[in-house]
Amino acid sequence: MYSLDVVGHQATRERLLLRLQEGRIRGSLLFTGPEGIGKRRVALELAQRELCFRRTACGQCEGCRMFQGEDLPFELPNLLRITPEGKAGVIRIDQIREGLDSNNQPRFSRGVIEWAALAPPMACHRWILVEEAHRLNESSGNILLKTLEEPPPGTHFILVTHRPEALLQTIRSRCERIPFAPLAPREAWTVALRNGWQEADHERWSALGEGSLRFLDEVAFRRAEAQVEAWLALLAGRPFTEWAAPLLPEKEAVLAQGEQLRQPLELLLRLLADLARIRAGEAPALAPWREALAPLATPQRDLKAPQAAVLEALRHLPRNLSPEPLLREVALTLVS
Ligand SMILES: [Zn+2]
């Protein structure tokens, strides 16, 4: 899914553009903020603007058209896009060093460091966009380090991530951090409407997305909804075997099994926080599920044990190979 227009982030975009025009932008930037709020799109806009015939990222001209469509190219005259590949979903060293794809075929005309050192096309910079930068592994991260520290003149790295804590500390310290805030609910829903969403889903879509566009895809949204329902059932003491299905990883998915547990576990943390809010007389953040949550917020319920279990499980996700026992263990803490 690839949206054409940039939504929101007005102040950040204006500031970046101004600094670029005045030559006050660092060689390596780290865009951080929640998943699915358009950080990558803002990075692309900087490159698109330079190839745009009107220099505005108008979205209409031949230059802009190169940045559009379902399959955005990995290499453009002023841009390289590096994304995680293969079953493990990591950014590998040969992607960086030789510019290969997961089948060892050339993806770029040359390796990334070499590409970065070429003279930029006229009136352009060279942009190297590292998407989901937390998926750089130690060796690919280390090979980037030297170049990140001092990219050749006119070359800019933009690392985009919603999990900066998972990046090598040495990489973080070499980049200037540009934080992004979630979109306003109204901004996010405007995009949803443009993508065919209906008013009937408005409240739940906005509550689950928290100012992001990560549930623009209907399958992803329905799955998150089913996960909330599953946790509510488990919180109400229903049997794990009957209700856990939507929480378990899909065998066919590209995302590694352990990583697929991140979303349901984070949803449970949000539900537990809402139970604490209700108990304190406040409104729950997941307001559309208020009625199901209220009877579960009894004073006897222990919220600390499940919170601790979820946090512990999240810490071990990158290495976790058996999702079901891990979920079962978390679910056990819900019925104390
Ligand atoms: Zn244009």
From TrEMBL:
Signal peptide interval: none
Residue ranges of the TM segments: none
Alphabetical list of InterPro entries matching this protein: DNA_Rep/Repair_Clamp_Loader (IPR050238), P-loop_NTPase (IPR027417)
Cross-referenced SUPFAM superfamilies: P-loop containing nucleoside triphosphate hydrolases
A Gene Ontology biological process term: DNA-templated DNA replication
Top-level division of the source organism's lineage: Bacteria
Protein name: Uncharacterized protein
The organism of origin for this protein: Candidatus Geothrix skivensis
